[in-house]
């Protein structure tokens, strides 16, 4: 993703020189945040974007800047335009929740999103986004999602079986498994079956065009895979949609609230204010397939990484699982059972806090505005301010990952692994949709599938931790793993990014 985005930006340098000059002059004089402190501009064309995308470890630069300048500061973006970077909780609340649709995605971000996923919900703004969200909401209600828990558990059982087969006679000693190879398989199968009644068969070794694209999506030599994803996903989605549409026509009333059913219903709406056209429907399916599986797989990878480095916490989870088993016998845990495990859920929350899969999202002021701050900052002139005036068109980077690590919010150990902070939280906040975290964003554009993702994480973590113990593969190996900003936060070995995703863990069968 880094190379792809960098190439998109770099292509701007190759366009006619007249446009470059125009872009530089226009953007430089269009708006200014020079009254704010911030890091020096290191690139005339690329600004801080290049530095952020090419840092070896996600968050290193942001942490340095936020420690020096406070919870909001000025940085530069491409063509040396000023960009406001914020992690202040009140500012994030204002932009994502209070302001409604007044801070849309910038046009260039929308173009890249459309290139990857078409005209789906992630690319929609304003009334169009509202139409998409209302159409999809029935598929992601808490009541609707409970019916998918059995699927999550059966899929986890298949993954457990594959790992047990891979361990073979070395089950007690364990074998090293690169979990980034397997976790996307289970999440791809889950999203295919739950949302579209489509069997990718990834865990069974079935080869599909989309499965092959996903397997190679995060290798440096395979950035071209992104170019074919949207077309390939639409080729898969179109016959599923056509078949479901034909079947619905034969029924007297709308049945089912899975994603495919609600999309068919939205496509056949008579009211144009509610209807989704066929391309929007196919784009929604592409969006759900990409956003709904890789993000959850990556989060699960980081959960296992954290537990491997903290074996005592892994054992606490295992003890909670045993308590559920003693109470339920052979019956699989219910949603209420999974929610009743305090430390188990604290681990999921702490992992989402430290490893938010999308650490920065970008917005743009639709009109002149003033963004309030909970924690005042110092300007270039030495004044203390509690709000930042912004002009129409001002680019704003919402640093979700930095908010999740703010000492002012999470305490002196904000950079450290400590699931206990969620057992007895001392401060009550309502930011975000889950556990006062910004990992799923907030407001009208919060992740529509966050409940789906949390329940899926619960089911997979329960099933894997019950059957396996996760240990460091060898001395120092996990110290080589870096959280690389590759669009998502991707685990890779230091100096070996071209090998793609890596999370080798020593997996032992529990006795």
TrEMBL record:
<dbReference type="InterPro" id="IPR036396">
    <property type="entry name" value="Cyt_P450_sf"/>
</dbReference>
<comment type="similarity">
    <text>Belongs to the cytochrome P450 family.</text>
</comment>
<dbReference type="InterPro" id="IPR002403">
    <property type="entry name" value="Cyt_P450_E_grp-IV"/>
</dbReference>
<protein>
    <submittedName>
        <fullName>Cytochrome p450</fullName>
    </submittedName>
</protein>
<keyword id="KW-0479">Metal-binding</keyword>
<dbReference type="GO" id="GO:0016705">
    <property type="term" value="F:oxidoreductase activity, acting on paired donors, with incorporation or reduction of molecular oxygen"/>
</dbReference>
<keyword id="KW-1133">Transmembrane helix</keyword>
<feature type="binding site" description="axial binding residue">
    <location>
        <position position="447"/>
    </location>
    <ligand>
        <name>heme</name>
    </ligand>
</feature>
<comment type="pathway">
    <text>Secondary metabolite biosynthesis; terpenoid biosynthesis.</text>
</comment>
<dbReference type="Pfam" id="PF00067">
    <property type="entry name" value="p450"/>
</dbReference>
<keyword id="KW-0472">Membrane</keyword>
<keyword id="KW-0503">Monooxygenase</keyword>
<dbReference type="GO" id="GO:0016020">
    <property type="term" value="C:membrane"/>
</dbReference>
<keyword id="KW-0812">Transmembrane</keyword>
<keyword id="KW-0560">Oxidoreductase</keyword>
<keyword id="KW-0408">Iron</keyword>
<dbReference type="GO" id="GO:0005506">
    <property type="term" value="F:iron ion binding"/>
</dbReference>
<dbReference type="GO" id="GO:0020037">
    <property type="term" value="F:heme binding"/>
</dbReference>
<dbReference type="InterPro" id="IPR017972">
    <property type="entry name" value="Cyt_P450_CS"/>
</dbReference>
<keyword id="KW-0349">Heme</keyword>
<feature type="transmembrane region" description="Helical">
    <location>
        <begin position="6"/>
        <end position="25"/>
    </location>
</feature>
<dbReference type="GO" id="GO:0004497">
    <property type="term" value="F:monooxygenase activity"/>
</dbReference>
<dbReference type="InterPro" id="IPR001128">
    <property type="entry name" value="Cyt_P450"/>
</dbReference>
<dbReference type="InterPro" id="IPR050121">
    <property type="entry name" value="Cytochrome_P450_monoxygenase"/>
</dbReference>
């Amino acid at each position: 993703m880094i190379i792809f985005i960098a190439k998109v930006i770099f292509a701007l340098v190759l366009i006619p020189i007249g446009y470059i000059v125009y872009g530089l002059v226009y953007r430089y004089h269009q708006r200014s945040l020079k009254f704010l402190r911030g890091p020096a501009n290191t690139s005339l064309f690329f600004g801080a974007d290049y530095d952020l995308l090419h840092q070896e470890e996600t968050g290193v630069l942001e942490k340095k800047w936020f420690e020096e300048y406070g919870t909001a500061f000025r940085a530069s973006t491409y063509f040396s335009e000023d960009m406001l970077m914020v992690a202040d909780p009140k500012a994030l609340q204002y932009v994502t929740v209070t302001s409604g649709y007044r801070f849309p995605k910038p046009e260039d971000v929308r173009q890249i999103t459309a290139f990857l996923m078409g005209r789906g919900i992630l690319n929609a703004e304003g009334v169009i986004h509202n139409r998409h969200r209302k159409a999809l909401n029935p598929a992601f209600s808490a009541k609707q999602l409970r019916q998918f828990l059995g699927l999550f558990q059966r899929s986890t059982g298949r993954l457990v079986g594959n790992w047990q087969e891979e361990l073979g006679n070395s089950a007690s000693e364990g074998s090293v498994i690169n979990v980034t190879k397997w976790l996307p398989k289970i999440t791809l199968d889950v999203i295919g079956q739950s949302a579209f009644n489509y069997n990718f068969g990834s865990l069974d070794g079935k080869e599909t065009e989309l499965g092959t694209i996903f397997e190679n999506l995060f290798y440096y030599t395979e950035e071209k895979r992104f170019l074919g994803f949207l077309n390939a996903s639409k080729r898969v989605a179109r016959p599923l949609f056509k078949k479901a549409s034909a079947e619905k026509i034969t029924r007297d009333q709308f049945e089912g609230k899975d994603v495919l059913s609600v999309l068919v219903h939205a496509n056949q709406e008579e009211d144009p204010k509610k209807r989704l056209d066929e391309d929007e429907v196919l784009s929604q399916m592409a969006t759900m397939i990409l956003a709904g599986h890789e993000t959850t797989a990556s989060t699960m990878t980081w959960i296992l990484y954290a537990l491997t480095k903290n074996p005592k916490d892994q054992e606490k989870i295992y003890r909670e699982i045993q308590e559920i088993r003693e109470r339920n016998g052979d019956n699989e845990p219910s949603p209420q059972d999974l929610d009743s495990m305090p430390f188990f859920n604290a681990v999921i929350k702490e992992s989402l806090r430290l490893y938010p899969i999308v650490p920065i999202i970008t917005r743009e002021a639709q009109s002149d505005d003033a963004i309030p701050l909970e924690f005042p900052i110092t300007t270039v002139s030495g004044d203390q301010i509690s709000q930042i005036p912004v002009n129409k068109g001002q680019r704003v980077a919402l640093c979700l990952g930095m908010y999740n690590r703010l000492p002012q919010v999470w305490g002196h150990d904000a950079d450290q692994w400590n699931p206990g902070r969620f057992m007895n939280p001392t401060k009550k906040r309502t930011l975000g949709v889950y556990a006062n975290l910004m990992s799923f964003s907030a407001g009208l554009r919060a992740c529509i599938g966050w409940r789906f993702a949390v329940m899926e994480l619960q089911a997979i973590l329960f099933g894997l931790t019950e059957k396996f113990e996760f240990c460091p593969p060898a001395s120092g190996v996990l110290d080589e793993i870096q959280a690389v900003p590759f669009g998502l936060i991707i685990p890779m070995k230091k100096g070996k990014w071209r090998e793609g995703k890596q999370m080798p863990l020593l997996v032992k069968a529990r006795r």
